[in-house]
Description:
Layout: H1 2-15, H2 23-31, E1 52-55, E2 58-60, H3 63-73, E3 80-84, H4 90-96, E4 101-106, H5 109-121, E5 127-131, E6 144-149, H6 158-162, E7 164-175, E8 180-188, E9 191-200
Parallel strand pairs: 3-4, 3-6, 4-5, 6-7
Antiparallel strand pairs: 1-2, 7-8, 8-9
Amino acid sequence: MKFRRMREMMVSTQIEARGIHDQRVLEVMRKVPRHLFIGEALRDQAYGDFPLPIGEGQTISQPYIVAEMTQALELSKDDRVLEIGTGSGYQTAVLAELAYRIYTIERVRELFVRARKLLDELGYHNVVARCSDGTLGWRDESPFEAIIVTAGAPEVPEKLLQQLTSGGRLIIPVGNRFSQTLLKIRKDEDGIHKIDLGGCRFVKLIGEHGWEAG
């Protein structure tokens, strides 16, 4: 009951008040138990207006950012979505409530194992996960209607653009190691179209088509 009230407050004061208007996204943010994706010592802070550490040098994104990126994907219930950076699995769960199937990739094995276990326990059986270099995408399952990248890249990985279907949407933070611009990219028969969604700060996207480890 306590956490349910905290979720309601989070949505009304942090998310809806800042212009997130997609009712499906708002309902999912009210539903998914964010505190379960965070270590017990930090659970009372789970619904605060800030990111939190999840171990291995990674974070769970600020709730507003999760909602903003999810809304920008314009998901339908039939969409197949590729997520780069499973992390805690929270964003994965939000996506799984809204789309047909989520393909999620995590580079750090410890996080991958933990997130996969929790997502299974919560009944998200429309999630397919693997531990590998997310900057390469998931060619065998492509193309995807939507791709979301939850780490900052130096540039948009070409392989991800190749794995978008026509009409597909890609949300990705692009910039330097310290700050990025959140981009919404739409691919259609006329080419690639980019929209600047504003400044943001994410951990580095590590991989062959991202930053080097270390």
